[in-house]
Amino acid sequence: MTYRSKVAVIFLLGFFLDLINMFIASVAWPAMSHSLQATVAGLAWVNNGYIIGLTLAIPLSAWLTRHLGAKRVFLLSLLVFSLGAVASGFAGSLATLVTWRIVQGAGGGLLIPVGQALAWQLYKPHERARLSAAVMLVGLLAPALSPAAGGFLVETLSWRWVFFASVPLSLITLLLAGCWLKPGKNASGPRPLLRLSLLRDPLLRFAMLIYLCVPGIFIGVSVVSMFWLQTIIGLSPAAAGALMLHFKMQACRTGSGATHSSDFLPRLNFLLFPDQHRIVMGVGAQVIIVVFDDNKITVTTQCVTGIDDASISGRGDCLSFTACDIDTFIPVLRELFDNFAVSRPAPR
Fold first, then answer.
1. How many domains is the chain partitioned into structurally?
2. Residue numbers of the domain that contains 158
3. If we measure between CA atoms, which residue out of 140, 134, 132, 136 comes closest to residue 249?
4. Is 160 contained in some domain?
5. Longest Cα pair distance anywhere in the chain, in angstroms?
6. Are 288 and 210 in contact (CB under 8 A)?
7. Fewer C-beta within 10 Å: the chain N or C terminus?
8. Residue 230 lies in a domain
9. Rounded CA gap, 55 and 88, in Å?
């Protein structure tokens, strides 16, 4: 295995750890409520705390990397993440649990930017499409599999194991990172902690607004839905968590009629985007916008892919374009990156 492949594996493991900890705890909320005597509103802070930790740590990643080195920061983030996971599992009150989730999120917030920087610099622009496809695959599978895994752990062991379960993988990633990553040189020269000039980009401001709103909506819906499924409907934690698997399979089935990127790409009107380097950002923003509107998502799916009404079932349409089934979106993403890499002039 080449060095850049090892770095990519470490980055994907860190990305997977970060994602599963955003979703795996959702099925355990009813059990947490009974054990910790917590309210529904209070339990929302179990995930809010993790996102707060992420938000606080991500802006510091570049500054820490310049002063400590990428390898040290990545190893430190894994240690903090593992400590937060273990302490969250042993928490005896909701306040303690939320506090340690913030610590865990702070560790997880450094995994993605530092790992991505390490991996991306080892791949040439025209080679990054394959790595992007792997990232997209992990991004699709982790949210789908983690609720099912969390439900199984809650039903067979305890809700505390939704936090303990990530510790072995984080320690394995820590060991691999310690053995595989090469120590880098610390950058010299003063630089500002935060580059506030980036806020001049309107697309970045819009993305920040989306990031601010979407997690809150998702967490609120998840808390209510998990209580409703397990207390009113009577589903077990494993059955409630496995519902995501059905939606993921439905999303892939819905897009099975549009799996050829050669037929899919010409239907995307790239002229809407004045700058070519913002095409991917625009598509991603549109995906996020339409997720909360059933009518808009159905129309968008039909117009872009040409899928008829019979192929879009009521339970799958909200995730059909948002999940962007693996067979359709990854070739599109690869095509976009390849075209961008070829057409972009080389730096002088």
1. 1
2. 3-183
3. 140
4. yes
5. 64
6. yes
7. C
8. no
9. 19
Chain mean pLDDT for the chain: 70
Distance between CA atoms of residues 142 and 324, nearest Å: 14
Q: Could you give the CA distance from residue 158 to residue 150 in angstroms, rounded to a whole number?
A: 10
Angle at 330 between CA 177 and CA 243, to 5 degrees: 85
Q: Let me know if residue 55 belongs to a domain.
A: yes
CATH of the domain at 82: 1.20.1250.20
61 falls within a domain = yes
Burial (0-12, 13-18, 19+ Cβ within 10 Å), 67: exposed
- Judge contact between 84 and 100, C-beta under 8 A: yes
97-124 pLDDT, tens digit per residue, is 999 999 999 998 888 889 888 888 888 8
pLDDT tens figures, 239-263: 666 666 665 555 544 444 433 443 4
Structure-token pair, residue 271:
């002229």
Sign of CA dihedral 60, 62, 68, 73: positive
